[in-house]
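Protocol step 4 of 6.
Sequence for Chromosome partition protein Smc (Brockia lithotrophica) entered exactly as in the expression construct, tag removed. Do not edit the line below.
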Amino acid sequence: MRLRELWLYGFKSFGRKTGVRFAPGITAIVGPNGSGKSNLIDAVRFVLGEANARALRGSRLEDLVFSGSAARRGLGYAEVTLVLDNRDGFFSLPYEEISVTRRILRNGESAAWINGSPVRLKDLSTLFLDTGLGQGAFAIVGQGEVDALIAERPEARRTAFEELAGIRRFRERKREAEADLAEVEANLTRVRDLLTALEEERAPLREEAERARRYLALREELAEVEGRLLLTELLRHEREAARAFRLAQALEAAEERVREQGTRLAQRLSRLRDAEERLRAGKRREEGEYESLRARREAVLRDLLALEAADAERRQGLVRMRDELRKALAERRHVRAALVRAKAERDELAAELATLAREESELSAPFGEDGDPLPELQDRAFAAAREAARLRSELRRLEEELARLDRRRGQLLAEREELTERHDRALRAAERAKAELDGVRAELERVRAELAERRKRREETARALRTAEARLLEAERELERLRARVAALAHQASLAYGEGVRAVLAAREELGGILGTVSSLLDVPEELGLAVDVALGGAWEHLVVESEGDARRAIAFLKERGKGRATFLPLDTLRPRELPPRERDLLARVPGVRGVLAEWVRTEPRYAVVVRHLLGQVVLAETLAAATQAARLLGFRTRVVTPEGDVVHPGGAMTGGAPRPRGRGGRTSFPPEQVLRAAEAELRRAESEHGEILRATEELRAAEETNARAEEELRARLFSLQEEERDRREEVLRAQREAEVLAAELRAADEELALSEATRSDLKRELAEIRAGLVRAEAEETSLAAELAERAREAERRRREREEFHRRQGELRIRRARLEEKSEANARALADLERVAASLRDEIARTWEAYREGKRHVRAQAERVRSYADELVRYDGELEQRKRVLAGYDAALHAVRRRAEEAEERLRRVDAARVELVRRREAHASRAREAELRAEEVRNRLRATLRLPPEAARERYAPLSDDEVPAARERLASLETALAELGSVNTYVLEEEARIERRMEELSASLEDLEAGKRRLTELLRRLEREMEERFREAFARVDAAFREHVAFLFGGGQGYLVLTDPAHPLEGGVEVVLEPPGKRRMPLTLLSGGERAMAALALLFAFLQVREVPFVILDEAEAALDEGNLGRFGELLRRFRERTQLLVITHRKKTMAFADVLYGVVLDDDGTSRILSVSLEDVDEEAEVTLRTSP
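Step 5 output, structure tokens:
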């Protein structure tokens, strides 16, 4: 295994993502002080799981996050990733490459991953435990820490040897075993105490248990006799109710027949009313059609009159257009005549101009070939002078242009630099604008999603609002039903309990301290009704009282009045019965076991002891299979029940079968008081639900309004975001266009700069040519000046002749100019006339087309007038026909009204007969309900007295004949007397006796298990101590031998060795380092020089590395105190170990750098962040290349 890569982001000075790839062998890291070299070591320790901030050179872990600088903002978290090559299987993970990542947020939160999977910090520590890389490992030596291996106490030095020997994992196992052993010994003491207490508790229960068994036998016979008596009475009342119900059903059938007849009559009446309404509707429809036809006839008549008026107006328009057409034709003829005259005048002017041209040519003929040569000479002299002046001017211009080009070149260079900066700024602005645009688009998508969600919510609210009224109506119907049921149950509850319980409840004010029956104080979940029913048995009607005195006072009251018997539960003496913790733990491992039944029954806190007393040792299981498994696990010492009423009794007996039928309210057959309380609670719940539905309707309306407002706000927000997106998009486009323009300007500046250079070269060449031309021009100017003086005299004579010629020529030119001006005026007039003629042609064409279109409209209008006239005749015929149809509707309506009146009279007679049948049916139904109520009272007595539903009583008991009833009543009285003589009997003593025996058996088994566990843990501790000591001694011997070898090498002689401070107990003592440098006697380590201590520490470190191979070693300026000679030995040791482990050395020493295979440089940039440069020393002669390994 070796270190492959290290990646940092935001860790201390590494504000940018920075990666380092490590090669095998020796890697040296160099750089100036403060550049961040040691931060790499801290990063490795951090990712390996170091939790102590001081070990990472900080006061808090949050200080590791890059806090920013003047040129770079701070970051929100620091993250370090270490990539390890695991192809040799050094770690037991199934990966060839292991990536360990740890992140710390600025708020102090931390997270870690191994190959992308989240792990705990403890998992990181466990991964590197006993590898030499864990916390406090010897393979990572920080700055200034090399001396600590020698300077620390012997006991602290032993920790490094334990890490080397790999026994820290054994120490963890030993601590866990010692903690388990202490817990086992405490449990042993507790179990022995419990067995002693249970033995003392079991002795006084035996006599009381025998009385309880006799009491249960008598009570069972009493239940048999009473059950047969109640069943006989129930059957009599049910027969009476059935007979009355049959009569009511017969009357109900007759009522149904009469109701059907009335329904048919009502349907016939309804059909007649419908027919009458249809006739009325038809009549109204015909009347509407009649009025509509009449209105349309009036409209057609109005349209006809309007068409006639429009036709007359259009005919007058045609007359006007015909007159205008005639005028336009006449005007066109006049324009054509003027056009002919203008063309003739144009031809005359052209002929006159030609004549003037001939005269001018004849006049200038004498001066054509033999003209004065002086002007030509003057022209040449002037030309030469002008050429010289031009060349001088051109020379000055070129010199100025060259200076201007030099200035422009400087300006272009400055402008190019400015354009480059502006172009970079424009690119950055475009990136920022694009990022803002992405943010706006993300917000836009979020708002759109929220708007869609809001619309969906609004639709759901609307649907809920529509269903609220239907739910409200259903709730009102349910309220009426529940009120009737509560009234009936209230009557039944008064007869639910036995005579003694009823007597005590009636005198509760007189007696005092009577809190109520168990059934009135418990709140049982509906699905557990059967389970609680079978678990409590007759305890439903036990009376809960404040104190023992209240119970004695109530018993005396029953004896004095002769009102029967009752069982009392005093709160001050009652004790809870609970399962031991061990049994609870066993049950927790059984699938399908819910726990103790008492935990599922609700009551007030003061009555919790009653629940725990009655149900604290009853286990609740989901199914009979789970119940059987739980009972077997507990040794069949505890009762286990299921929600369906199945029971596994102590000892292994099982009770079960078909579930009991449910009552009208859907609940199990609880005592009537419990059912009444449940019905009242259901009524209150229904009333509450009714109120909640009303409130919910209002809330839904308010929510709909709120959703509408929120939707509008979201739409406004969406529009705003769309506008903002458009603005951001335009901003991005502007920035991009600006960048493109600046790039084009930059290219133009480069081109202009190149052109300027070429122009300068051309100008210099042209300057040389112009200077040579100027010399030639000045010589020619001198020669021509002499020749000009010679010919000046001859020119004077010819001048006078020319003056006459020019006077005559001027007169001819004036005349020609006048003729040309007149010709131009004539041409303009001719063009104006041609435009007028063209305009007249267009106008005549338009007028003629409009005239023809008007005639077509007049003919079409005439057709429409004839069509409207025909339609008027048709409407008159339809109106007459509608009048006849309305008369037919009146006759049909009269006949339908008469038949409807007859049907109403028959329907009144049928309703009277139905009312009489209803009265008789309700009377018989009332007698049936009374008989049913009496039967229900008997059923309730069966439930209250015998805890049996009526169906179970029918299966269990046989009804009595009329002759057997008196004897049964006498036997019932004698049984009650025998039970009274027994007095108060605590039947729970049987369960208590069985519970104590079961508990003692369980505790005995637990005692054996605990003693066996104690023996196993003691043996485990002895084995761990032996293994740890053997490993430590072996590692110590190997390190001592290697230390002796490395001391001799580094010091060039002398000796050094290791000594145990407590050889008999090496794991409790320490390790002393003994050193005798060459030529010196043995002395304390504190008296050694800094270099000697450093060499001793390095000798010990390399001894560790020789004994225990580690993946990599990191040394931070470990050789700082060594001189040049010892530095060479240190480098030689590095080379020895480079083949067996990977070495990372942070150094300032050039000699150490020379031993390295790869050299990294750490520098601090201007923005305050560290970056890394790497040089491969093997390739530096061939490529001389430095690669930057810092991501921007």
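Step 6, annotate. The longest strand covers residues 77-85.
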